[in-house]
Amino acid sequence: MANIKNALLTSLYAQLAATRAGRDEPSSGVASDTAPAGDELALAEKVAADRALGSIFVPGSGDPDAAVVLVGEAPGRDEEKSKRPFVGAAGKNLDLLLNHIGLTRDQVFITNLVKYRPLTAAGRNRKPSVQESRRALPYLVLELAILDPAVIVCLGAAAASALLHQPNLNMRQANGSRSDLDGRTLFITYHPSPFNFRNPTRRAALFAAFTELGGLLLLGRDRVNSRAGTGYLGTRLDGEHG
Ligand code: URA
C-alpha cells in the first residue's frame, strides 16, 4: 500500500509544486486603470509583501500507511531550508509529545495545511492568513484521502479551523477534543510552538491532550479495532478480543 500511496503523493506534490497551486492568488481581474497610485500603491505593496508566501514547496513526510497523520499550520524558516515539516523548535517539541506516548516520527505521517512558508515583509515567519488556509484546504483534503488515516491530529487552530470549517475555534475548549470527519477521528491539540511550550498551562494541556491521544490510539475505537482486534497502532489488546 505504501508504494501506491507514495506514488500518488509524489504526483500530488509535484503537481502542487509545478502549478504553485495553493500558493498564488487567483487573478483579481482588477483593471490597471483602477490600480492605486502614490501612497496607496506603497501601502498596497507593503500589505502584499506582508502576505507573501515563500517559493519553496514543503511536502509532508513519514509513513504513508500510518494510522495517524498530524497536520500543522505551515512551514517556517527551518522547514523551508530542509524541505521537511516540523524540523525546527516546534518540531523538537512535537518529538517530545510523540515520545511521551511512545511514538517516534517514523510511526506517523506529518504534514502542514499550507505547504509554503508564510513570511512577513521583514522575512519572519507568520501564521497563514484565512485566504491562504482556504486556498490550501482542497489539497490537504486530497492528501488525506490518499493517506487514508484512522486519526487526523490537528496541531493548532489553522488545520482544525480549516478542516472543520470553523474559523472561530476556541482552542482552550478544542484542545484534546475529537470529532468525526468523514469516518475518521479528528483530534485537536494546541500547536506545539515554543510560544505555547513556554506557557505552563498550555504546555500541560498539550501533554494531557497527547496522553488522551495515546489512549485513543491504543484502543482504536472504530475501523482498525473492529477489523483486526488491535488498537490503531496494531497493539493487540489482551482480554478484549479473546
Ligand atoms: N509549525 C508548523 O505548523 N509546521 C511546521 O512544519 C513547523 C512549524
Provide a descriptive summary of the structure in words.
- This protein is α/β, with parallel strands linked by helices and 242 residues long.
- It has a single domain, classed as Uracil-DNA glycosylase-like domain (Uracil-DNA Glycosylase, subunit E, 3-Layer(aba) Sandwich), CATH 3.40.470.
- The protein is 45% helix and 11% strand.
- Strands 1-3-2-4-6-5 form a 6-stranded mixed sheet, with helices on both faces.
- It is globular and about 60 Å long.
- The structure holds uracil (URA).
- Uracil binds next to loops.
Give the arrangement of secondary structure elements:
Layout: H1 2-19, H2 38-50, E1 61-62, E2 68-72, H3 77-82, H4 89-100, E3 109-112, H5 130-147, E4 151-155, H6 157-164, H7 171-174, E5 178-181, E6 184-189, H8 194-198, H9 200-219, H10 223-228
Parallel strand pairs: 2-3, 2-4, 4-6
Antiparallel strand pairs: 1-3, 5-6
Determine the fraction of residues in helical runs and give it as a percent range. 40-55%
When the domains are counted, the total is: 1
Q: CATH H level: which superfamily?
A: Uracil-DNA glycosylase-like domain
Secondary-structure arrangement, i.e. CATH architecture: 3-Layer(aba) Sandwich
